[in-house]
Specification:
Elements (H helix, E strand, L loop, with lengths): L23 E2 L4 E4 L2 E9 L3 H8 L5 E9 L8 H5 L6 E8 L6 H9 L9 E2 L2 E2 L6 E4 L2 H16 L10 E4 L2 E4 L7 H4 L1 H11 L1 H9 L10 H7 L22 H7 L2 H9 L17 E5 L5 E4 L3 E2 L7 E2 L8 E6 L6 E6 L5 E6 L9 E4 L4 E5 L13 H6 L2
Parallel strand pairs: 8-9
Antiparallel strand pairs: 1-10, 2-3, 3-5, 3-8, 4-5, 4-10, 6-7, 11-12, 11-19, 13-14, 14-18, 15-16, 16-17, 17-18
Pfam family, one: PMSR
Keywords: Multifunctional enzyme, Oxidoreductase, Signal
Function: Has an important function as a repair enzyme for proteins that have been inactivated by oxidation. Catalyzes the reversible oxidation-reduction of methionine sulfoxide in proteins to methionine.
């Protein structure tokens, strides 16, 4: 897939042969991390650099790993798989939080970023090891995948029949470390490859040139067409798609202080900001993207003059990075999809987490408990039912 990426010399790729020694195997679609029960989906849609990048943008996705599945050879290398003789397909394994997005939602995101009609490869990458496939972990996943394909066909967006294979999952072998998060580690090479692969140009013709700024789920499209989805539940537990608007839109939407804090990593004054002493029940969302970030059930009085929380609503919406702006390093907190600067997290908070998320009010919008459903955050009402018991 990446052999021709050597143009102009600077795009030469040197691939290591080291791989992880242990596969992610077994038939269960559940994975326990801490006290949360996450679920797993294994999918193939061509170049895993691209599918990993696209699935990681879905709210509720915890992690995406690039690798190989479907063949008999143990511990395959990229060189062996790309030769097309192992039976493996380039695939990704998606770990997601079912309290945020369900399996139907993961499949919806998958369909809208691949060519499901090409069983001989994927865009510029040719061969059976690049064909689209869904590796189902259970009978339930198989049935949902079959219904999802029916919905995809019902949209009549494609001029060729859907030709995506449904394969029982056996083992998943993570690819070489070099391939993991490739789009983050090598953004220029990744963008060069992706543009020249023709993937995005094809997706624009199927889903519309505004598909990234105004995304529509398959269920949304069917509803607009006056058709009924065969799936019993909506593709996502949150119908909102969280994206970062253009800088011009952000400037027009925010106050100067909100812009300085979220876009320029500024800090507001303590004790005079909007939410430092707010005691009303509700949730706090990113002022830019609307991502749900913190709940009043985790808010406490820290004495610092800024809103303080012991934990986020869901770590899927939070990114933590080391900040060296002061003499000593601190852990900066940003929103995952809006990429807004929120504040910092410190290890001096109350139990059971021991953490203090010190957040700028200017980066937040407060949604009162009584308005959650109206604002599209009704699934978080259960936070307050639990707290009242």
């Amino acid at each position: 897939m990446k052999k021709w990426i050597t143009a102009a010399g600077i795009f030469a790729v040197a691939l290591p042969v080291w791989v992880f020694s242990n596969p992610m195997s077994g038939s269960s679609a559940d994975e326990t991390q801490g006290k949360k029960l996450y679920k797993v989906a294994t999918l193939a849609g061509g170049c895993f650099w691209c599918t990993e990048s696209d699935l990681e943008k879905l709210p509720g996705v915890i992690d995406v790993v690039s690798g190989y599945s479907g063949g008999a050879l143990e511990n395959p290398t990229y060189k062996q798989v790309s030769a097309g003789t192992t039976g493996h397909i380039e695939a990704i394994q998606v770990t997601y939080d079912p309290s945020v997005v369900n399996y139907e939602g993961v499949l919806d995101q998958f369909w809208r970023h691949i060519d499901p009609t090409d069983a001989k490869g994927s865009f510029v990458d040719r061969g059976p090891h690049y064909r689209p496939a869904i590796f189902y972990h259970s009978k339930e996943q198989l049935e949902k995948a079959q219904k999802s394909i029916k919905d995809l066909e019902l949209t009549q967006l494609f001029d060729k029949p859907i030709d995506t294979e449904l394969i029982p999952f056996e083992k998943f072998w993570p690819a070489e470390d070099y391939h993991q998060d490739y789009y983050k580690k090598n953004p220029l090479r990744y963008k060069f490859y992706r543009y020249n692969s023709g993937r995005d140009q094809y997706l624009d013709t199927i889903w519309g040139a505004d598909r990234t700024t105004n995304p529509m789920t398959i269920a949304d499209i069917l509803k607009k067409q006056g058709k009924q989805s065969s799936l019993e539940s909506s593709p996502s537990r949150s119908s909102q798609q969280y994206t970062k608007p253009s800088d011009a839109v952000i400037k027009s939407k925010l106050t100067p202080l909100q812009y300085k804090v979220t876009q320029e990593e500024g800090t507001e004054r303590p004790f005079t900001n909007e939410y430092w002493d707010n005691k009303e029940p509700g949730i706090y969302v990113d002022i830019v993207s609307g991502e749900p970030l913190f709940s009043s059930t985790d808010k406490y009085k820290s004495g610092t003059g800024w809103p303080s929380f012991s934990q986020p609503i869901n770590s899927a919406f939070i990114v933590e990075e080391t900040d060296y702006k002061l003499i000593y390093p601190r852990t900066e907190v940003r929103s995952k999809f809006g990429d807004s600067h929120l504040g910092h997290v410190f290890e001096d908070g109350p139990q059971p987490t021991g953490l203090r998320y010190c957040i700028n009010s200017a980066s937040l919008r407060f949604i009162p408990k009584a308005e959650l459903a109206k604002e599209g955050y009704g699934q978080y009402s259960n936070l307050f039912e639990t707290a009242s018991r």
